[in-house]
Amino acid sequence: MSADWFAEHGGGVRAAADRWGRPPEDWLDLSTGINPHGWPVPALAPDVWRRLPEPDDGLEDLARAWAGAPATAGCLMLPGTQAAIQSLPGLRAPGTVAVPYPGYGEHARRWRDAGHTVVAMSAHRLPALAEQVDALVWVQPNNPTGEWLPRAALLDARQRLAARGGWLIVDEAFLDDPDLSLAPYCGEPGLLVLRSLGKTFGLAGVRAGALLGPPALCLALSEKLGPWAMSGPARAVAALALADQAWQRGNRRRLAISRERLQALLERHRLPAAGHTDLFVYCRTPRARRIADHLARQAILVRGFDDPPALRFGLPGEESEWRRLERALADSPSLY
Ligand SMILES: Cc1ncc(COP(=O)(O)O)c(C=O)c1O
Q: How confident is the model at residue 278 (pLDDT cuts 50, 70, 90)?
């Protein structure tokens, strides 16, 4: 963890433990948007561990069906969508790329690292930027702000970009509603959709995600990542989780209820939501750092942002965790 712990990636419990002098097992980690009640992973067949992963195991078809993508769309399974975020910029000649700001910082960083010029974008600039840039990234819903763009606006941007050989990359890492995804349009030129199993399935550790898009592009990325990029156990777990539609339906309902509960809890402590997904609540507050410090002293880790000052709270899991967050916020009313 750097000197500025506040605005680091979420999930750094060990580093927080060092910094605040509390052992890792004491921490309630609300700094990520990972489902605390993830898909229950069963024991895997011994062969899955022993054999090399096989690319014709049917996982891509399952992923297309899960995402609602047409059979003609390209699909590349990934060791987390991060793998595509890192490698896609290398598949284009340096140009200009718009990325959402505030947003998931890895997009801007990786395009910049690959020699592209990065333009920070707020949602209302989508139509204008789609006429100007070579590639445009949108996170739907956006992390951390929870903003949504209408599907029609994104499809219009796709058309404008594709007319000039450009790309629209829609990062749906936090999206779990088949009716809102752009995946059904995958296969159309210039549209790339990222889906993750890390967030709503609560399987961030296994590293599993998918790129849906033009088949030639999926092939080019696959060649860049090399053979066996996603492990056999990750492919086996992903196949079972993607096929488990009953769990997915129940999970959607449970997450929506938990998120409403978290939003109400935060509101009671004068932290109204400025935005949300079903996996986190985003609160704008000038006292973001002070509140994050106060919570960290009680071994509760949240994700902070400086510009604008804000906090992102992931969902507590167990009842005791909900009570702990409530107590910690009630503990120091003068802060808020
Ligand atoms: C918006 C967004 N996209 C993609 C990722 C990468 O997730 P994964 O590699 O686990 O799929 C993250 C991780 O936090 C994220 O916030």
A: very high
